[in-house]
Design goal:
The complex is a heterodimer of chains A (about 120) and B (about 280). Chain A is built from four helices and no strands. With about 120 residues, chain A is an all-alpha fold. Chain A has one domain. Chain A is elongated, with a radius of gyration of 18 Å. The model of chain A has no long low-confidence stretch (mean pLDDT about 90). Chain B is built from eleven helices and no strands. Chain B is mainly alpha-helical and about 280 residues long. Classes of the chains: A mainly alpha (about 120), B mainly alpha (about 280). The interface between A and B is large, with 66 and 68 residues.
């Protein structure tokens, strides 16, 4: 459908498409476990969940704490687009497509700026 | 338990309606959580952003696999939607929630009027115009700069990149402030202003939601604006509803769904407005 794409770029689109689908279903699975545990524990969703702490997620998952699975599912869905841009960046770099390398890098820099600005604002 | 199931059910209804009418669920999730579950507006926006990412990701994946979405155009525009989302996400924590409520009521009113005035044959917003994928611009229409050439498709050209960049930035700000995917802005922008066939514009807009929402969702996450206990059940419900909607869409007469939706949107707009001023 799209003009002027190399075979590598076409392949990269297919890989990215598959990645997005797989990550979506993985995150749905994680959320399903988290919500199941939430209901099993009799916790009301309106009781106020824990705030996000990256260092606690793995421990919460091992303890079968619903918050661990919920955060992991939510993180997966948030990370998927970033992974998609990273794969595209590598593909465009291989093809020597400077314009799209610049665009992909710009997107990743904006995401990094979002993390940095929010982190600074909350300090 | 009942509240959790109600959230899943509410999310499913939002996802189903959104999918049937080509809107995405974001426009219904925020009112659902604020009016239905008395959540603070910012928290509802944060949850909504995660939900629209979830519904868009799977659809965008399918569009990419089938080579319908224009990845180059989508990535070029999403650089600017992400910048807009960064601005919107940063501003969202500084402005009065009542102002956000008023903006949201305005958005709901706009969508309700659009659906009321120019319904598609199938009742969907995306059906407002004939399928432009069948009405392609001739590729020899005008000489284009090389950047536009590189963003073009096999059978269409892209024009008005400057307008696209401006609109994409605005869509990013709106997405971050209101927790929507921004398809109501991006699809008409790409289709009507940039000459992209409707089918490609819809697929590309879907693809762009991920990065747009991620830029602002990260800000909401770090500010403590996303509650996992609310986001989990709601996102699950939205996913189930959107999946069901995509399978039911061609079997239903969507004119009645559209009329119901116009009524729901108008009522919700009034509720959001009264919440803001009351």
């Amino acid at each position: 459908m799209i003009a002027g794409r190399s075979a590598g770029a076409v392949r990269a689109e297919e890989v990215i498409g598959r990645l997005l689908i797989v990550v979506t279903y993985v995150s749905v699975g994680l959320l399903l476990v988290g919500v199941g545990l939430l209901i099993a524990d009799g916790v009301s969703p309106l009781s106020g969940g824990p705030t996000f702490e990256l260092g606690r997620v793995a421990g919460d998952v091992l303890k079968l704490d619903p918050a661990g699975f919920l955060w992991l599912g939510l993180l997966a869905i948030m990370a998927a687009p970033v992974g998609r841009v990273t794969i595209a960046l590598v593909s465009y770099a291989r093809d020597g497509d400077r314009l799209m390398v610049a665009v992909s890098t710009g997107i990743l820099l904006v995401i990094a700026a979002a993390v940095a600005s929010a982190a600074i604002a909350t300090v | 338990m009942i509240i959790g199931l109600a959230m899943i059910g509410g999310g499913a209804a939002a996802g189903l309606f959104g999918s049937l009418l080509g809107l995405g669920g974001g426009i219904l999730i925020v009112p659902l959580l604020t009016l239905g579950f008395a959540l603070p507006l910012r928290e509802a926006v944060g949850v909504s952003l995660v939900c629209v990412m979830m519904t868009s990701s799977a659809a965008a994946g399918v569009y990419l696999e089938r080579h319908v979405a224009n990845l180059r155009l989508g990535m070029t525009l999403e650089l600017f939607t992400a910048i807009g989302a960064l601005i919107g996400g940063s501003v969202a924590f500084l402005i009065d929630e009542r102002l956000v409520s008023i903006l949201f009521a305005g958005l709901l009113g706009y969508v309700a009027i659009t659906m009321f005035r120019a319904p598609g044959r199938d009742g969907s917003l995306a059906g407002e115009t004939p399928d432009a994928a069948m009405v392609l611009e001739p590729s020899h229409a005008a000489p284009s700069p090389s950047v536009l050439d590189r963003l073009a498709g096999d059978d269409y050209r892209v024009r008005n990149l400057g307008r696209g960049v401006l609109g994409a930035t605005g869509a990013g700000v709106a997405s971050a402030l209101l927790g929507i995917g921004g398809g109501t802005i991006k699809v008409p922008l790409m289709h009507l202003s940039m000459g992209v066939p409707l089918r490609v514009a819809t697929a590309t807009s879907n693809l762009m939601i991920g990065i747009t929402a991620a830029a602002s969702a990260i800000i909401y996450l770090i500010h403590g604006g996303i509650d996992p206990y609310v986001a989990g059940p709601t996102a699950l419900g939205v996913f189930v509803g959107a999946t069901a909607g995509s399978r039911l869409g061609h079997r239903l007469d969507l004119r009645y769904v559209r009329w119901l939706f116009v009524v729901v949107l108008s009522y919700t707009a009034l509720q959001m407005l009264s919440r803001a001023v009351g």
